[in-house]
Design a protein that fits this description.
8 helices; alpha+beta; Ubiquitin-like (UB roll); single chain; Fumarate Reductase Iron-sulfur Protein, Chain B, domain 2; five-stranded mixed sheet; 2 domains; 248 residues; two-stranded antiparallel sheet; elongated
């Protein structure tokens, strides 16, 4: 295939970025989207030009770092996949593909297509964990029975990889799907109920401090999420937050 790539180039967070067009050919349908970018970068380096900076790690749909906005869609035109799992067979010979970083004030551009998603880390650090005292006081594995449906819902929430597609898809750049998934995976389990009140209050507070917007109720986040995280988690987080706010 011969393609035209329109790629966002930006030297750093303070520099003014712009779209730059790159013609490319010899692209096979079995190539992944990132492999296609590798081919482009090899040609740019051969010509003495700076390669396009993009983030990636596992290339197996697990880490979420490969997040790109492709023709206006987080992770591109396919569903329930990350960018590294997107194959070029989804495009046609002669297509123009617009490639941008995820757009949100809370996700500042580092360079080109790389954004800083440290805001998600700080939300997680605010309460997305279960505290266990293991300093000389180790205990046997927890033997509390857990309802099968609750366990399944908790596991499904825990599959969130924190890629940020929900934020990129939302016109308010809301992080409620991400935050609610991290709240839900513990709120559904007895082990997580001990710190439930502080957890939801602290994580929502941190989410607001990071500058994310509120939920739009349009559902774009669930549609674009590569792991299919359900909107039910947002409803659950709202209930948890209301309950926690009325205590004490």
């Amino acid at each position: 295939m011969k393609l035209t790539l329109k790629i966002w180039r930006q030297e750093n967070a303070k520099a003014k970025g712009k779209m730059v067009s790159y013609p490319i050919d010899g692209i096979e349908g079995d190539m992944s989207f990132l492999e296609m970018l590798d081919v482009l970068n090899e040609s740019l380096v051969a010509k003495g030009e700076d390669p396009v900076e993009f983030d990636h790690d596992c290339r197996e749909g697990i880490c979420g770092t490969c997040s790109l906005q492709i023709n206006g869609e987080p992770h591109g035109p396919d569903r329930l996949i990350t960018t590294c799992q997107l194959h070029m067979r989804k495009f046609n010979d002669g297509d123009t593909i617009v490639i941008e970083p995820f757009r949100a004030n809370a996700f500042p551009v580092v360079k080109d297509l790389i954004v800083d998603r440290g805001a998600f880390d700080r939300i997680q650090q605010a309460g997305g964990y279960v505290s266990v005292n293991t300093s000389g006081n180790t205990i046997d594995a927890n033997s509390i029975p857990v309802n099968k449906h609750d366990a399944d819902d908790s596991f499904n929430a825990a599959t969130c990889i924190g890629c940020g597609a929900c934020v990129a898809a939302c016109k308010n750049a809301s992080a409620m799907l991400f935050t609610s998934a991290k709240v839900s995976q513990y709120a559904l389990l007895p082990q997580g109920k001990v710190e439930a009140t502080d957890r939801v209050l602290n994580m929502v507070r941190q989410m607001d401090l990071e500058g994310f917007g509120n939920c739009t109720n349009t559902g774009a986040c669930e549609i674009e999420c590569p792991k299919g995280i359900s909107l039910e988690n947002i409803a659950r987080m709202n209930r948890e937050y209301l309950s926690a706010s009325t205590k004490g």
